[in-house]
Amino acid sequence: MTLQSDLSANPTSEEVAASLRRAILAHRVGPGSKLVEDEVGDVFGVGRTIVRTALQSLSHEGLVTIIRNRGAFVADPGIREAREVFEARALLEPRTSRSAAQRVTAAGIEGLRAHIAAEHRALESGDLGQAVYLSGLFHTAIADMADQSTIAGMISTLVSRSSLVVALYWRRPQALCESHAHHALTDAIAAGDGDKAEDLMKGHLLDLLANLDLRERSVIGGSLRDAILAG
Amino acid sequence: MTLQSDLSANPTSEEVAASLRRAILAHRVGPGSKLVEDEVGDVFGVGRTIVRTALQSLSHEGLVTIIRNRGAFVADPGIREAREVFEARALLEPRTSRSAAQRVTAAGIEGLRAHIAAEHRALESGDLGQAVYLSGLFHTAIADMADQSTIAGMISTLVSRSSLVVALYWRRPQALCESHAHHALTDAIAAGDGDKAEDLMKGHLLDLLANLDLRERSVIGGSLRDAILAG
DNA sequence: GACAATTGAATTGTATACAATTTCAGCTCA
DNA sequence: TGAGCTGAAATTGTATACAATTCAATTGTC
Q1: CB-strand contact B15/D, under 7 Å
Q2: CATH architecture label of B13-75
Q3: Is B37 at the interface with chain A, CB within 8 A?
Q4: What residue ranges do the domains of chain A occupy?
Q5: Given a cut of 60, is residue B86 above it in pLDDT?
Q6: pLDDT in tens, B139-151
């Protein structure tokens, strides 16, 4: 099994973190999975120092939980945290969508539509994890359009954490982020209609929250190596 | 010169980070200052490994900027970033103040008043940096009362970064966070008046922003060792 | 069989050695 | 003078050795 092309010969900690991030966001490693330093280091051909830095990075994003002397685990948000993440998004994203609509560019809209298309393709090909990942990218792309990098960074982190929440609590794997909502949002932004964009985003987030089953949970297992290398 | 009492014999990276954080937030090390790993390690009696972890932690909080092969520097936010930080706070804090008012407890109010008193004392004793630090703790304390740890964490980070912004762009060092605003906020929260708390916080943040001079900048120098050990 | 104690393997925490890179003082030359 | 060069010193990046801790399997006891 060979390494992926997006990994350079001597990866930096940020490259390792990015690769692990994708694996987590696409649900190729499930919440709670142990991330052993040596094991990860072998996958990327680096020492523990770099892996350690990457894991610390991901822990600051809330994607990984580090317990002293016990190691790093893919974060396993509880029901409380799941709610909190969406409440935080509800404070940030609607107004940010409004800003995005006010600063809309042709390139921005093109990007949003490309994200929707990619997500659609992933869903059709049955790659559910990838679809969740791409659905998150759509939200992040909107935040980036608002030209507020601080807020965009926070939203990006929250969207990432939402991916874990979805892995654990999503009700109906078939009907993910109904791309209808994403289409409508894109249209409102393209039209420069800030009011509508804000409303649509608010509704969309409520919709997502409503589709979470905040009682039970699912589990995902498998080989760490395969999971990281597959994407 | 001896080490401080709040530092254990073998500090963890989090303890080192906390100590550095206080030094930065109290303006004992100015924006742009270089933080040399060996130098910091000598101050705390630890190797570079722990210092490195601490610095990475602070860099994720936006208090330190790490440039590859060049090292770590106290963050030096530009005008753009200064605005963004306050715009983000404007999205989060007013509604969080409302939540705090709705869940108010006697202990919470007591804590807020203690923060105000401490800030007042620091101002009277002329320790401006300490006053800025304590003023930030007041805002963080409100966020904690709202019982939303995710949002509270984001606010805490933004408040920290605001301290750097204040160090660089504050107009009138004498009239800091006029504790009048903090008193009024505390009263509204104590009364459980969510509407008023939200409004007051919104106004308070606008007031802070208005007191920034987003054109010029000041510089602070001195010995790193003294700065860290002084507080 | 269930449970606690024991002990060796696996894993993480830290310092440190060495390599790679940057910094800077001293030098040269226009 | 000042711009560019040079090499030594300072600093950071990475792997690794060793210590400390946790984990897991085995044994022994009830």
Answers
A1: no
A2: Orthogonal Bundle (1.10)
A3: no
A4: 13-76, 79-210
A5: yes
A6: 999 999 999 999 9
CATH architecture of A13-76: Orthogonal Bundle (1.10)
- Least CB–CB distance from A88: residue in B53, B60, B151: B151
Superfamily classification of domain A79-210: GntR ligand-binding domain-like (1.20.120.530)
Query: ipTM of this predicted complex?
Result: 0.89
Q: Taking Cα atoms as reference points, which of A53, A54, A61 lies closest to residue A77?
A: A61
Contact between A33 and A224 under an 8 Å Cβ cutoff? The reply is yes
Going by pLDDT thresholds of 50, 70 and 90, the confidence category of residue B218 is very low
In angstroms, what CA-CA distances link B203 with B77, B136, B185? 23, 16, 10
What is the chain B residue with the closest CA to A53? B53
pLDDT score for A219: 45
pLDDT band for position B95 (50/70/90)?
very high
**What is the rounded distance in angstroms from the CA atom of residue B55 to the CA atom of residue B14?**
10
Is A84 close to B60, i.e. CB distance below 8 A? no
Does the beta-carbon distance from A92 to B95 stay under 8 Å? no
pLDDT at A6 exceeding the cut of 70:
no
